[in-house]
């Protein structure tokens, strides 16, 4: 096996316009460690797909034609032109085209070790389809594959999901979708675990100008891509073993597998202590949260190769700083720390904290009133190709409340 094949091979599957917008920014990087070009954007609307492909072409500065890019990186699914900002319609479209989705992903990414599924949670297409697709890949492929090949391959694939919360000022319908989407990413109908790891970011929290973090869509999306790069890079080139299996195994056993990134970049490693760098990252979580409620944490420190080779930063340094940081904040967590190199010289150090199992109520409080206000009127309301029954909505609520209550204790 070639050395490059020893690293975790990721694939990115995005659905909906928001997910496509985020994913298109992967192509703005000179390299995508662990991902390469294993990227697929899906939508029920061909015009939205073309917009995403046009953004990709701009990022690539490539002469590939639009149709060639569409054939390589895009998939239109379902017979509806859009989901009407109602997540059951997005799920219905994915159910209708599941065999096409499965075959396309199997043909293109059949050697992937892990998937990163990306969706914005306020919409209907991505928010409707991604939780369903994850569930089917983990639990339902035996119904589609007679020879068992897809099922055998998928037995070892890890499914992570990145969900982005709508702005707090967006219409109630988007907050209704977001609450339902979070529940469906976390739990399947019978209350079991769905995605192996659910990563969360909130637009309003990352666009908080009062705290000096003013960002807008492109820069918010770039912050998300930075976190994913750091997370994936740790499993690709690292001085110690920390990878996606480490991220998901213990948190799943703890029933605390939701995470948010906390990132600090371009810190002068010759000036700042590592513990200070971890504090800087912890001050930039991607959702509102109390860091003290964290139940699982992973620290990834990315430093220039020259600093690592000269022992300016070592693995024991990182381990010790992470241990001291957790003790200082009285965080009793399951977690690991890792040192990973980046090319070039200089002294700029990047830090990613993946904080998991924290109390979700500070995030949900921004959406719960809107969710409850719309719930009764939308359940059984006949909004499109797929209705949402009262029993289905009750199950979504029960699943989320049981998960949140467990992690708020």
UniProtKB/TrEMBL annotation:
Residue intervals of the Tubulin/FtsZ GTPase domain: 12-205
Keywords: Coiled coil
Pfam families, per the entry: Tubulin
SUPFAM superfamilies membership: Tubulin nucleotide-binding domain-like
Coiled-coil stretches noted in the UniProt entry, renumbered to this chain: 39-66
One Gene Ontology MF term: GTP binding
Signal peptide, first to last residue: none
Database matches in InterPro entries: Tubulin/FtsZ_GTPase_sf (IPR036525), Tubulin_FtsZ_GTPase (IPR003008)
Protein origin, superkingdom: Archaea
UniProt name for this protein: Tubulin/FtsZ family, GTPase domain
């Amino acid at each position: 096996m070639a050395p490059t094949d020893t690293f975790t091979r990721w694939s990115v599957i995005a659905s909906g316009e928001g997910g496509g917008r985020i994913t298109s920014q992967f192509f703005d990087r000179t390299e995508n460690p662990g991902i390469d070009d294993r990227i697929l954007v899906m939508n029920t609307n061909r015009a939205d797909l073309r917009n995403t492909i046009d953004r990709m072409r701009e990022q690539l500065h490539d002469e590939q034609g639009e149709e060639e890019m569409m054939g390589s990186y895009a998939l239109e699914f379902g017979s509806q032109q859009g989901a009407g900002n109602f997540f059951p319609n997005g799920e219905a479209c994915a159910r209708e085209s599941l065999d096409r989705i499965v075959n396309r992903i199997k043909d293109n990414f059949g050697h992937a070790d892990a998937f990163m599924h990306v969706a914005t949670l306020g919409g209907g297409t991505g928010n409707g389809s991604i939780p369903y697709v994850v569930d089917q890949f983990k639990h339902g492929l035996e119904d589609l594959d007679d020879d068992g090949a897809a099922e055998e391959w998928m037995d070892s694939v890890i499914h992570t999901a990145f969900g982005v919360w709508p702005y707090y000022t967006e219409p109630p319908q988007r907050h209704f979708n977001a609450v339902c989407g979070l529940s469906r990413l976390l739990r399947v109908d019978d209350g079991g675990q769905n995605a192996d790891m659910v990563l969360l970011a909130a637009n309003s929290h990352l666009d908080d100008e009062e705290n000096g973090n003013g960002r807008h869509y492109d820069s918010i999306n770039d912050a998300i891509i930075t976190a994913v790069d750091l997370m994936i890079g740790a499993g690709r080139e690292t001085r110690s073993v920390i990878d996606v299996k480490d991220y998901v195994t213990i948190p799943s056993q703890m029933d605390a597998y939701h995470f948010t990134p906390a990132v600090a970049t371009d810190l002068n490693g010759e000036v700042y202590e590592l513990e200070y760098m971890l504090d800087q990252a912890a001050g930039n979580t991607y959702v509102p949260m109390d860091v003290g409620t964290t139940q699982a944490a992973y620290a990834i420190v990315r430093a220039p190769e020259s600093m690592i080779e000269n022992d300016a930063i070592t693995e024991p340094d990182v381990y010790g700083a992470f241990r001291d940081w957790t003790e200082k904040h009285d965080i009793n967590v399951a977690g690991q720390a890792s040192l990973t190199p980046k090319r070039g010289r200089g002294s700029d150090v990047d830090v990613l904290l993946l904080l998991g199992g924290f109390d979700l109520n500070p995030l949900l409080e921004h959406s719960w009133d809107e969710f409850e206000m719309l719930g009764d009127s939308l359940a059984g309301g006949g909004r499109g190709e797929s209705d949402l029954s009262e029993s289905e909505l009750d199950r979504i609520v029960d699943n989320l409340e049981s998960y949140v209550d467990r992690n708020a204790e």
